[in-house]
């Protein structure tokens, strides 16, 4: 099968972790029986040994080596620009599945109306109480401000209809860890917006598509397991502030007033939170508490700057 004639281009970004990547690839090759596909892996910061192992075990995989600091959007776009498929399956490396993911999602989207651009499965996050079946529209500005203070305003029935449905149903937003999208639409959108580094490029994409009249769907009967959806690690001292700055870009846009109010709210909450963690550490210090305190301090230090999410990540990564 020629790559130029494949139906689906599977795009995976992996940051030097074959322990995640190899089971993910095995899932693809063991469950896909009907549809033709190519697999493009962005080997991000790979060691020589891991790169050799990937090439030896999966010679059919197209590998893009990248050793420069790039975020989710930039790394995925490296692969998407080389993709030949009618559809793209964007897939996290820390996922695995036993359902016929590609075969079923392609069957689904070809039966749905032409204005459907994206379909995704149920995402089972390890250690989380609820599975992800679709996403509601992104928070309004004032709802987001409320969330800074841990205030959750009630959602409308319309918003709630976009999640936790049965069978194949319409959602609004998507999770970037796995979704199937029509490549012609994705290409017209310029793929992912690279101003985001560690979120919310997935929400930005699906929100933009909805506003243009396209629709996103979920097949709740197809399931995939996401291993790292609930994990917490040292890299969060860099990814957390980068992610918050990305969300502020999406929520505030070019409004100086919205930026000012959001920054003031974050400054108040972060200052109080850091003080509380400092007090807790005085009596009992744990690694998790220290990491949380550092990431809040990092966000506070860049909150009033013009640094991009990528600048923020680069500033704190590995420190």
Q: What is the CATH first-level class name of the largest domain? A: Alpha Beta
Main sheet properties? 9 strands, mixed
Radius of gyration: 20 Å
Care to count the β-strands? 9
> For this structure, what is the CATH homologous superfamily of the largest domain?
Spore Coat Polysaccharide Biosynthesis Protein SpsA, Chain A
- Global morphology: globular
In the CATH hierarchy, the third-tier topology of the largest domain is known as: Spore Coat Polysaccharide Biosynthesis Protein SpsA, Chain A
Low-pLDDT residue intervals, each spanning 5 or more residues: none
Provide the structure class.
alpha/beta
What is the helix fraction of residues, given as a range? Answer: 40-55%
CATH architecture grouping of the largest domain:
Alpha-Beta Complex
Beta-strand share of residues: 15-25%
> What is the helix/strand order?
EHEHEHEEHEHHEEHHEHHHH
Number of domains: 2
């Amino acid at each position: 099968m020629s790559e130029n004639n494949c139906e689906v281009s599977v795009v995976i970004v992996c940051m030097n972790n074959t322990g995640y990547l190899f089971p993910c690839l095995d899932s693809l090759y063991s469950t896909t029986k009907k549809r033709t596909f190519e697999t493009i892996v962005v080997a991000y910061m790979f060691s020589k040994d891991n790169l050799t192992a990937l090439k030896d075990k999966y010679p059919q995989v197209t590998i893009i080596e990248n050793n420069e600091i790039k975020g989710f959007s930039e790394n995925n776009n490296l692969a998407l620009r080389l993709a030949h498929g009618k559809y793209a399956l964007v897939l996290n490396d820390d996922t695995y599945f036993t359902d016929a993911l590609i075969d079923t999602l392609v069957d689904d989207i070809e039966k749905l109306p032409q204005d459907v651009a994206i379909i995704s499965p149920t995402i089972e996050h390890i250690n989380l109480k609820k599975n992800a079946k679709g996403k509601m529209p992104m928070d309004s500005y004032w709802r987001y401000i409320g969330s800074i203070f841990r205030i959750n305003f009630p959602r409308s029935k319309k918003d709630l209809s976009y999640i936790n449905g049965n069978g194949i149903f319409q959602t609004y937003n998507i999770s970037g860890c796995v979704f199937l999208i029509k490549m012609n639409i994705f290409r017209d959108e310029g793929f992912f917006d690279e101003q985001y580094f560690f979120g919310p490029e997935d929400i930005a994409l699906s929100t933009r598509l909805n506003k243009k009249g396209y629709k996103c769907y979920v097949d709740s009967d197809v399931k995939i397991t996401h291993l790292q959806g609930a994990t917490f690690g040292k890299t969060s001292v860099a990814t957390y502030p980068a992610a918050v700055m990305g969300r502020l870009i999406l929520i505030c846009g070019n409004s100086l007033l919205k930026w000012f109010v959001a920054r003031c709210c974050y400054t108040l909450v972060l200052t109080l939170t850091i003080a509380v963690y400092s007090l807790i550490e005085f009596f009992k210090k744990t690694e998790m508490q220290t990491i949380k305190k550092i990431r809040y301090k990092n966000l506070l230090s860049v909150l009033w700057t013009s640094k991009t999410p990528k600048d923020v990540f680069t500033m704190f990564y590995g420190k």
